[in-house]
Amino acid sequence: MIKIFFIFLVIGNLFYKCSQVIDYKKYVISNVSSSVIDTLKFPTSGMINEVELMIKGKINGIAVIKIENGNERYKDITLKGRIDTLYRTEWYEPAIIFKYEPLSEIVGDSLVIFYRFR
Questions:
Q1: Is pLDDT at 16 greater than 90 in this prediction?
Q2: Domain ranges, ordered by start, for the chain
Q3: Is 69 exposed, middle or buried (CB count within 10 Å of its CB: 0-12, 13-18, 19+)?
Q4: Which pLDDT score, from 0 to 100, does residue 12 have?
Q5: Averaged pLDDT of the chain
Q6: How far apart, in whole angstroms, are the C-alpha atoms of residue 79 and residue 85?
Q7: Strand 95-102 to 50-68 pairing
Q8: Please, what is the end-to-end C-alpha distance for the chain in angstroms?
Q9: According to the CATH classification, is domain 25-117 in 2.60.120.1540?
Q10: Does the pLDDT value for residue 22 go beyond 90?
């Protein structure tokens, strides 16, 4: 009985996590050896009060993502190796600027930024 409960708990948790990624938009940085400056946009008809970014991927080297934090200030997130980072902050606009900068020679796959505004 406990095994069956555990199996349903694991399956339920898996479905819950998968359903959470669905409402994210996706931005791919396919060339991790070059700098990128871009804006993540989300058309919405409602009130925005939060932005959430999940940064996933793998790079062989060191890089930084600078995420706009208001008034031209940026939050720096250092990236190295396998990346699975969540950044969440209070936000009231339907767009946010980010800068990706390699700090060393980078050989690797790609980075994906899943983002949503709430």
A1: no
A2: 25-117
A3: middle
A4: 57
A5: 86
A6: 9
A7: antiparallel
A8: 40
A9: yes
A10: no
Identify residue 56 by its one-letter amino acid code.
Answer: K
Q: Is 32 exposed, middle or buried (0-12, 13-18, 19+ CB in 10 A)?
A: buried
pLDDT band at 47 (very low <50, low <70, confident <90, very high): confident
**pLDDT digits over 73-88, tens only?**
899 999 999 999 999 9
The Cα 76–Cα 101 span in angstroms is 10
Q: Residue by residue, what is the 3-state secondary structure of the chain?
A: CHHHHHHHHHHHHHHHHHHHHHCCEEEEECCCCCCEEEEEECCCCCCCCEEEEEEEEEEEEEEEEEEECCCCCEEEEEEEEEEEEEEEEECCCCEEEEEEEECCCCEEEEEEEEEEEC
Q: Count CB neighbours of 63 within 10 A.
A: 22
Phi, psi of 35 (to 5 degrees): -75, 150
β-bridge mates for residue 27, sequence order? 113
* Gap between the Cα atoms of 9 and 107, Å rounded: 39
